[in-house]
Amino acid sequence: MSNRPAGHVARSTVRPNSETGRRGPIRTFLRTADGIPIESVYDPPPAVYETPSDAPDTPSSPSRDLVFVIAHGFTGDVDRPHLRRVADVLRGYGAVVTFSFRGHGRSGGRSTVGDKEVLDLAAAVEWARGLGHPRVATVGFSMGGSVVLRHAALYGGTDAVVSVSAPARWYYRGTAPMRRLHWLVTRPEGRLVGRYGLRTRIHHRDWDPVPLSPVQSVPRIAPTPLLIVHGDRDGYFPLDHPRMLAEAAGDHGELWVEPGMGHAEHAADDALMARIGAWVVRAAG
């Protein structure tokens, strides 16, 4: 196990931006507290003239002190088109850090499907702050949505949290997509499909101990502003999941049930992401 702290930059490529006076995009590997290399990308906010004038709810200029740290869903990675699209929209509101969870993309290790991934997010948040952004908002989708809730409960230190299409409780098998996902994770042949078909390397060990669940995490997040977003056509987690999370959040949480929306970053269109970006700008001060 590495003794280097979470957020250690193993390698990076920096391109100065003469127009904005800020560094350009950075692609690097971070080292988590348990020694896993995590591929990460930093995109600074665009110059004012780069911000599309017709983008919904886009501020006149993006915030220079705010950074969004985006946590993708299971089988995603930093270069998936849907994640890049989400990052591009949120760049209208601040800088953006994206990364591949362990076992995904070019990151090391194997996926624990929401358990040790909290260490990956912690490394990305620490790196974001180290780049000079005093305000950090985490935005997670599906598995990443559960991770941002657990991270905020266990680590604190974020200024706003957005959880999209997240489960409220573990081991849910009430829908056909979730039964397929459990086969993928728990069966040796499923893990082979994950590795070679979905570019996701899945750990064979069960959770021990079982991590704090999303719904148990939510009350610990207060007073950090929390937004819970869920589609009413989500094929993975029905509406009792976001309602359970919202009830646990009480007055410090806000729930958006989106008509016609499916699951996670694939279903979160640009207009929704723009509304989320505007909410974060307000909520994070």
TrEMBL record:
SUPFAM superfamilies: alpha/beta-Hydrolases. Keywords: Hydrolase. GO terms for molecular function: hydrolase activity. It comes from the Bacteria. Pfam families: Abhydrolase_6. Residues 69-269 form the AB hydrolase-1 domain. Residues 1-25 are annotated as: Disordered. This is Alpha/beta fold hydrolase. It comes from Streptomyces tricolor.
